[in-house]
Amino acid sequence: MPDPQHLLQFVQTRLDEFLSARTSILARVADETAEFSSFSREFLRGGKRFRAQFCHQGWHAVTGTSASNSTEAIVGAAAALEIFHAAALIHDDIIDNSDTRRGRPSAHRRFERQHMHSRWAGDSAEYGRSAAILLGDLLLGWSDELLDDALSALNDAAIAREARDEFRRMRTEVTAGQFLDILEEKSWATHSNAEQVRRAETVATFKSAKYSVEAPLSLGAIVGGGRADQLAALRAYGLPLGIAYQLRDDLLGVFGDSAVTGKPSGDDLREGKRTVLIGLTRMALSSAGRDEIDGLLGDPRLGDADVTRIQTLIRESGADAQVETRIVDEVAKASEAIRRAPLDGVAIDELLELADAVTQRDA
């Protein structure tokens, strides 16, 4: 059985092999498709690999230390999650008009620059968006192919079907969550302050919590042949931890150091994200304070002074402290759910460590 570090190495090897096979197909189409290939390779060599780690830990939790004939399948499933995540990030950056990702130009900005430097006809930004949408779509299809390859290594057709259903459910939920996210950016003013917080929590649950933690854990456990009670315990751990994970992201989106996060400081504010953090801030502010923050949020021209002003309003409201407390509470809920669960003891310890890693981070 691979340990977590070796698992990530195996995942990278699987990704490299898969991309080599698929990019050779692109090369036979046209030399110009090399930009798709090179970006995919670069992008899939970065990131924290949290989803792959949770997928592996879900599998480990139900298989224990015994030899398993599903090792090939879990490596492939974890790799499929990484490709799906890459596709989601590319599309997310287009929706949010983000200039950077992981300290480098986002996909649509990279294609935009290619157009500008080549002095091609038409609008560079339009070309960049169109090319990035297609790259994201291509990676979505590739994630399905890689998952199918992984599940074909299983000897149990019923387990393979259940794993496929989990992946499909995750894909549907995260897409719906993304839609709700952009909806809230436009419709927030039609809801009460309390309703805004509730709706922001729904977005956090389906856009991130289930997709980032619960679904990868469950997918791994299913591939490992986990029982219903084991899956229930992992879901009870995964959902609150996923919420804590997203709440940390919300704080980093406002207060994070751009040199560490790889994205400009205050990007979430320029995008007008109506997060739980913003909802709690508005509930605590005076009417004048709410008007001020509403007038600033969503303005792509926000300068450093504007970002600092919003940060000050959030701190004065106490919302950042509330979110920190909520993170601690959700992690405690997650930890309690697995401490005495019918899972491998070593895996439980590793899941407890992983809970701290994903919630006490600066990027």
How would you describe this structure to a colleague?
A two-stranded antiparallel sheet has the order 1-2. A hairpin with a 2-residue loop joins strand 1 and strand 2. Helix 3 packs across helix 8 and helix 7 packs antiparallel against helix 8. It is 78% helix and 1% strand. The chain has two domains: 129 residues, Farnesyl Diphosphate Synthase; 207 residues, Farnesyl Diphosphate Synthase (Orthogonal Bundle).
What's a quick, concise take on this entry?
With 363 residues, this protein is an all-alpha fold. It is 78% helix and 1% strand.
Features:
Farnesyl Diphosphate Synthase, 16 helices, mainly alpha, 363 residues, two-stranded antiparallel sheet
CATH homologous superfamily label of the largest domain: Farnesyl Diphosphate Synthase
Q: Using DSSP, what is the number of strands?
A: 2
The total of helices stands at: 16
Specify the oligomeric state: single chain
CATH topology of the largest domain: Farnesyl Diphosphate Synthase
What would the average pLDDT be, to the nearest integer? 95
Q: Uncertain runs with pLDDT below 50, 5 residues or more? A: none
- Level of helix content? over 70%
What is the chain-wise order of helices and strands?
HHHHEEHHHHHHHHHHHH
What form results from the Cα inertia axes?
A: globular
Content-based structural category: mainly alpha
